[in-house]
Amino acid sequence: MSWGTELWDQYDNLALHTQKGIDFLDKYGNFVRDRCAIELEYASKLRRLVKNYQPKKKEEEDYEYTSWQAFRNVLKEIGDLAGQREIVAETLQAKVIHGISLLSKNLRDDRKKCLTEGASLTHTLTTQIAALERAKRNYDKSYRDAEKSIENYQKADADLNLSRAEVEKHKHNMTMKCQQSDDSKNEYANQLQKSNKLQQTHYETSLPEVFNRLQEIDEKRTKGIKEFIKSAADAESSVAPIIARCLEGIVKASESIDEKEDSSKVIERYKSGFTPPADIPFEDLSKVDAESSNYSSQNNLGINNMTQKGTMGANKLKKRVGIFGIFGSNKNTLSTDGMKEDFSDLPPNQRRKKLMAKIQEIQQKITQETAAYDGLVKMKGVYEANTMLGDPTTVDAQLNESGSRLEKLKSELKKFKMYLDAANNAQMMQHSPQSHRNMYNGQRSSRHSNGSGENEDGDDNPDDARSLSRSASEGSVAQAQNGLNINNNGSSASPESGLGTSHTSLPGSGHGSANDNTHPEDMYYEAELLQPLGTCKALYPFDATSEGSIPMAEGEELQVIELDQGDGWTRVRRMCGSNGWEEGFVPTSYIESTLYA
What we know:
Order of helices and strands: HHHHHHHHHHHHEHEEEEE
Structural class: mainly alpha
Largest sheet: 6 strands, antiparallel
Helix content: 55-70%
Radius of gyration: 56 Å
Shape: rod-shaped
């Protein structure tokens, strides 16, 4: 079905319809243009949102937690989503809006041509119809005049009173009027024939062609809207897989959050490495003088203060150093953040973390500087092989500077490795099984030694009152200075050190019978030898590296004399013959225990 055939008489309506269609095309173009603006604004606001919530430099430490890392990944995915919205806007701008503008312009031009041609055809037909009407009016007038002249001639010819001349005059007038009537009739017939032919051509050929072209224009507009809507959908679907991957990334980021791991990182970040303070001993004022009492109180207070400081965060420690360092006489070099060079003002765990990070940073710098140095060496070799490329002596200065920087970095690396070794040794001494239970041993020895209030010489024993604050290393130093008996593992057999042969000590080796140099208190502890709680079998070999532990071979059977108290160590005894025995701690995970019923 065509407009030319079915709508041959709807010229005005077709002109109005095509105009409305093109206006609708422009309306859709404005819709897409506004949508592009919204997409760009949305992408811009998303990017601004991501930028505003990017981690600040002062918050970098917090982004070690999985929840914070997941949020950073979410920000990254949101930024990618913003990029996809920008791609959609650019695609709509390039393919849809530009295409609509071009199509609308072409359709308007084609419609204007069609309407101009249709108006011309209509004007031609109207002109011909007007000429036909004039010819018809002339013929009608001439015919009436001829009829009247014939009637006048007949009256004059019948009237006997008129002369012959008057009759001839009426006859001549009649002949002339009849001739004019015939001419008007012929002209009318001619115009009628031309009008019919033109009208037939107009409504059957010329105007239908114009209407058919208008139909093509309207169909082209409709098809264009169809393609533009599909192109807009294709622009969305082209980025849909990437958007889906972004959403999958967000889901994966949420799944990466591990509350247990975050809790562990909180412990790792804020753990000071200090041990909790021991119980405050009872001070019998009737047996301890005022000086010893004051010293003990100050010592306990110092332990508490040290523990409180150990639980502080790194940032608070920096502030304390910055304030109190003004009045101190500390000779250690302070870094730019107010801490000592070896980070000795930090708790043990925090110090080790800082030192390892510093070592890693220096190693990276060494790697970069080494690569730069090797490049300069190669460049110098190329210059020496071909002097046309450059002067080898110009590289010597750069080589010397690079070499000096490299040596400086290596010396710094060595220095910080020494700091780290010292921190590790201190950490090992603090976390040894002996140090975990030294406080308890010290209390027992202090209790027994303070029973008399005096030593053999009758002097007060201040060491007993301070046994709670002694570390394993201090006990060892005291033993060496006082000339006390030392066992095979270098531990004292004195009750004052807390490392005797009793069930609360950790002897390197011992004997069931006391030797000649045994102190009376040692005899008391040997009498308290614990009965075994069961047996255990070594699953793996263990080399004793910390004080208070003993080595064992794989498959060796030992006696269990004290169970694991939550610190990961079990106290065992090895029988060394008919009279000898050896006690110490081994890792609980290295043995398989079988307890007695």
